[in-house]
Amino acid sequence: MKKFLIYLLLPVLLAVSCPSSPVAQQDFDLSYTPQTPDTENNYPPETMSEKTAFAYFRDEKILVGWNVGNTLDSHISGRANETGWGNPRINQEIFDGVKKAGFDIVRIPVTWMGYIGPAPDHHIDEKYLARVAEVAQMARKAGLKAIINLHHDGAHDGGWLSVKKAVASKAGYNEVTHKFTRVWKQIATYFKNYGDWLIFESMNEIHDGNWGWGSDTVQSPQYDILNNWNRFFTEIVRGTGANNATRYVVLPAYCTVPKHTLASYFWLPPDSAPNRQIVTFHYYDPYEFGIASTRWEWGSEADKNKVVNEFAPFKPKYIDKNIPVIIGECGAVKQIIADKDKEEKARQNRLDYLSWVFGKAKEYGLVPIYWDNGATSGNGEKFGLFNRTNGQPISPESEACIKAMINAVKK
Fold first, then answer.
1. Is residue 399 flagged as an active site residue?
2. Whole-prediction pTM value?
């Protein structure tokens, strides 16, 4: 991809594709100097590998990952709350257990709202930065690579990183974009000396409430905004220098949906550090089986072919061009059904699903990262596999699910 040519032509391209957008032709001033200096971290500089992202994933054998979900990303009344959604504080034991089970990388979703100060500085609470760093170090101590991001800050139902607000007016765009760039400037500054085991992901599932059901053929102003935010994120990270000059970065498309990630209107921004970008999408399809528990059957030829048809295009578009692709969230919930015969079949179908999805991810060069929210009971989405206190599988069934995923990518 001729990224720098795209960068030069961006205003023309966006003006042609979406002339009515209030932001399509806008750039943004990233040079703001805060009144309160951004928090520095005295963490000693670590050595970077100097490898491309593709070579790093290959040589480090990063094949499969796990999300420590519903912890640092949890929030109550507009404020991040690590234990607010029922999980204990993250400890060393959970990461040790995840590593022992065979996972290579952990995604640490982080919600920052409630710890971000008022405009224009948007100063992040130093203690919260330190807690995120503490958790990241636990992952590293366990021997895992780690990803941190902006997570529910972008929730369509209350998060400040609102694409709906940004698309509604120039003032809204400027307000949200300024906060986004300020937050990432501070995160990048704080973690700039960390080695390449720490990866930054710009944002999570940004959408307007429709979960990605946008147009496939006409470029929406919302897609333009996401492309711009990914570009500003990249420039901010690189501009902080030190190890961030070449740090690996993860870039999502609209709502992190496969079809938008493959579409022509999603593009990787220009980058002063060549070949350091990673693409991501999320996968829980079919929704009725993967999340909603309204369908207990899975495993027909049509079901299996759907996974193949949705994964296969990533290989020529990204993998064959040496751009790594992670499935940043994926999995299927545990189902509890009154009809015990159906429940037993649903549990077996879950194992088959995980084996197939993770196996096909490996076949097409994708790195699947299981979404674990810690939940195993109640009315919510039951993705939990590990005991968050001691790092052990919660049950024989959860252990079987873990082995199904690991065996699919490593056997």
1. no
2. 0.93
